[in-house]
Here is the input.
Amino acid sequence: MNRDFLNIVAELNKAKKILVVGHIMPDGDDVSSVLSATLGLRKIGKEVLAGIDWRIPWYFQEFEEVNEILSYEKIMEANFNPDIVLILDASSPDRVGRFQEFFDNRTVLVVDHHGTNTLFGTYNWVDTKYGSTAQMVLRINTELGVEYDERLATLNLMGIATDTGFFRYSNADEIVFSDATKLVSLGGKMYLVSRLFENKRVEQFKLLSTMIENMKMELDGQIVYSYLSKEDYEKNNCSEDDSGGFVGELRSIRGIELAIFLSEYEKGEVHVSFRSRDWFDCSRLAVFLGGGGHPRAAGCTLKGNLNVIVEEVIREAKNMFVSQRESRLLIK
Ligand code: AMP
Ligand code: MN
Ligand code: MN
Here is the structure.
C-alpha cells in the first residue's frame, strides 16, 4: 500500500473535525470528490464541513447535496476550527483560493491526480495513474469502512464520468471501468449523472454559435482556437458556466491535435483551456503560462486585455506545438 495513502487514512481516522476543500472553478470531478469525501466522513461520525472558494456552476444543482458545499464566507461565519484540512483535485495552493488561510499550523492532506501537483500538503497522495480524484476518494472511503448508499455511489461516479468525458478519453482505462462498475453495483446511477449535461438552456446553443463564429484554425488545421468575451456572454444572457463543454467540441473537429478555448469570465480575467488528441502535452504549455493540468487537458488563468491574451497564448501554443512536434519526430 502507498505510504502517503496510509498516512492520509490514519490522519482522517484520528481527526474529529475536518475541512474538505475543492478547487476554484470547480468541475465535476472536484464537486464529486468533495461531496463523496464529506458524506463518507460524516457517515463514520466525523464533523465535516466542505468548502469551495468559487461559485458552483448552476447545473450541479441537479444534485441537491451540492448545497452542502459552502462558500469561504459561510465557513468563516460558522467559526469552524478543523483539526485537519483535506484538499481534493487541486494541484497547487492557489487553486484553493482563500482556504489557504486554514493551512497554518494544521495538517494538510492533499489528494490529487495531476502530474503538475506541487506537493504542498503535509501528506501528499498524488497519483497520475487515476483518471479522476473521485477514484482516489473511493479508495479512501473504502479503507475507512464507509458504507455506500445509492446517493453516495452516484455522486462518486459523477467525478469518474466527467473527468473521463463519460468514459471516452484516453484516461478511461481498466481501473476507471472497474471503479465505475463497483460504484454501479453499489447503486450508482449513470443516467442521473448524465442529466447534469442533458439539461441545457437554449441560450447555451446560441452561445455555442457565437463561439463558432469566433473560431480560427492555425498550422494547417492542426490547432483550433476560439474565445468568448465578457460581452459575448452577456449578449447571450449567459455566464462562463454555460460554456463548459465547448473546448471538447473544438477538439472533436477532424484533424485537430490541439484545441484552445479562452473564456473571459470577468472583464480582464481569462481562463484558458487546452485539450489535445494524441500527443501534444497540454500540461507543459499550461505550466509555462502559470497553470497546470494533465497531458491531454490543462488550463491556466491570465489577466489583461482579451485580444492581447488571445494573441500571446496562440503564439506560445504554436511555438510549443512546433517544438514538441519536432522532438517527437526526432525520437521516432
Ligand atoms: P479546464 O480546461 O479548466 O477544464 O481544466 C483542465 C485541467 O487543467 C483540469 O484538470 C484542471 O484542474 C487543470 N487546470 C485548469 N486551470 C488550471 C490552473 N489555473 N492551474 C492549474 N491547473 C489548472
Ligand atoms: Mn478538477
Ligand atoms: Mn480531476
